[in-house]
Amino acid sequence: MFTLPPLPYELNALEPFMSRNTLDFHYHKHHQNYVNTLNMLIENTQWAKMSLEEIITTAPVGSPIFNNAAQVWNHTFFWNSMQPDGGRHPTGELLQRLEQTFGSYDGFKQKFKQTAIEQFGSGWAWLAEDKDQNLQIISTSNADSPLTHNLKPLITCDVWEHAYYLDYQNRRADFVENFLNHLLKWQ
Ligand code: MN3
Question: Could you tell me the end-to-end alpha-carbon distance of the chain, in angstroms, rounded to an integer?
Answer without folding.
Answer: 29
